[in-house]
Amino acid sequence: MKQISGGVTAAKGFCAASTAAGIKYKDRKDMALIFSKTPCKAAGTFTTNIVKAAPVKWDQKIVAESACAHAVVVNAGIANACTGQEGMDYCSQTADHAAELLKIPADSVLVASTGVIGMQLPMERIKDGVSAMVPELSDANEAGHQASLAIMTTDTHEKEVAVEIELGGKTVTIGGMCKGSGMIHPNMCTMLSFVTTDAAITKELLQEALSEDVKDTYNMISVDGDTSTNDTCLLLANGEAGNAEISEKNEDYRKFAEALNFVNTTLAKQMAGDGEGATALFEVKVIHAKDKEQAKVLSKSVITSNLTKAAIYGHDANWGRILCAMGYSGAVFDPEKVDLYFSSKNGEIKIIENGVALDYSEEEATKILSAEAVTATADIKMGDASATAWGCDLTYDYVKINADYRS
C-alpha cells in the first residue's frame, strides 16, 4: 500500500467540482459534486440518531434499492434536518436536476447536507449550484481538493487522503474526503465522508467492508458527545481499475479492506484533531484487554470525559481523571493493575504503575502534553486485545463557536 496525493478524484473515473452557491456562507464555496460516468456499486453507513435528516433517509433508500450510483451532491451551511416532507421533496428535486444535467437516472444521485438544523434549503440556489458545477467537473486532484474545502462548516481545514494498492497485477486506488469538527460522537459519529475507489468488488462485499471498518474508525472518535442527525459515509466503487472482481473474502479482499481502513482511520483522526476549538488530537489506547469490546468501551470513556479533555488542554497530567473515566465506563477491570503512559513527539513518560502514581517529573509530563497530538496508553493486564479511540482537548473556543453557531 502506498499513500499518494489526492482525495475523491484520485481513483480512475471520478470527477469533482465545487461552487459558491450562497446557501449560508457569503465568502466561500459551499457546494460540491462527485461524479463517475461509469456506474458505481454504492455502500453506506449512517447516523444512529432517531432524528435523521432528509438526505440520510434519501441515501439509505438509494444505497439499499438502486441499481447503481453515479453522483453525490453535497451542500454546507444548512443540514436539511427536521424539515418534514418539504425537506424530502428537496432531496428529490436536487437529484432530478442533477440527473437531467448529467444524463443519468435520478435514483443514482445521492445527496448530503451539513449545517444548521431546522432550516429549509434555498432550492433555487441549490439548483443554480448544481448547474454551475456540472460543466466544471474535472478528474484533477485540485478539483477534489476544492470539493473538500467546499463541504466544510466549522472545520478549520480540509480533510482528504488517497492510497494505491495492487490487486491481481492491477493498480487499485482508494481516495476520500470528509468534513467534521463538532457534534461528533460515536454511533456512527458526526461527519460526512465520501470515499471513492476504482476497485471491482461486489456490492455485498463493499457494504460489508465499510460496515466492519467504521467500527474501528469513525465509531472510535468523539469531540463533544453529540451524535448528529446527518452522519453519512458513502463508499462508491466503479470498477475502472480492471481487477478481477472481488466476490469472496480472499487475499484481494483483505488487501482492499486494509487500504480502506487506512483511508478511514486517516480521515477519522483528521476530524478528531480538528474538533471545534481544539488545540490537540487526543488518542487513547487500551492494551492487554480481555477482549476488543472491553478495550473499546474503556478508550471511548476516556476520550469523552470533559474533565480529561480539559486537562489535556491545560497540559496537565491529571491521571486521576483518566482512571476515573475508565471506572465509570461500565467495563470491569482491576484498577490496581493499571499502568498509564503519556506520549507525544516530545517523548514518553510512565505516570502510574499498578494503579499508583510514580515519582514522575511534572515538568516532563507537561512538555509531552504540550504537543499537537497526545497519546494516553492504559495497560490493564487482562489479555491480548486492544483498541484505540480519538478525541481532542476541550477549550474556551468550543463554547464560543457553539454559542453563536446559528448567527
Automatic annotation (TrEMBL):
Keywords: Acyltransferase, Amino-acid biosynthesis, Arginine biosynthesis, Autocatalytic cleavage, Cytoplasm, Multifunctional enzyme, Transferase
Catalytic activity: N(2)-acetyl-L-ornithine + L-glutamate = N-acetyl-L-glutamate + L-ornithine; L-glutamate + acetyl-CoA = N-acetyl-L-glutamate + CoA + H(+)
Binding site for substrate: T153, K179, T190, E276, N402, S407
Site (Involved in the stabilization of negative charge on the oxyanion by the formation of the oxyanion hole): T114, G115
Pathway membership, UniProt: Amino-acid biosynthesis; L-arginine biosynthesis; L-ornithine and N-acetyl-L-glutamate from L-glutamate and N(2)-acetyl-L-ornithine (cyclic): step 1/1; Amino-acid biosynthesis; L-arginine biosynthesis; N(2)-acetyl-L-ornithine from L-glutamate: step 1/4
EC code(s) of this entry: 2.3.1.35, 2.3.1.1
Gene Ontology molecular-function annotations: L-glutamate N-acetyltransferase activity, acting on acetyl-L-ornithine as donor
Its biological purpose: Catalyzes two activities which are involved in the cyclic version of arginine biosynthesis: the synthesis of N-acetylglutamate from glutamate and acetyl-CoA as the acetyl donor, and of ornithine by transacetylation between N(2)-acetylornithine and glutamate.
Family: Belongs to the ArgJ family.
Protein name: Arginine biosynthesis bifunctional protein ArgJ
Species, as recorded: Roseburia yibonii
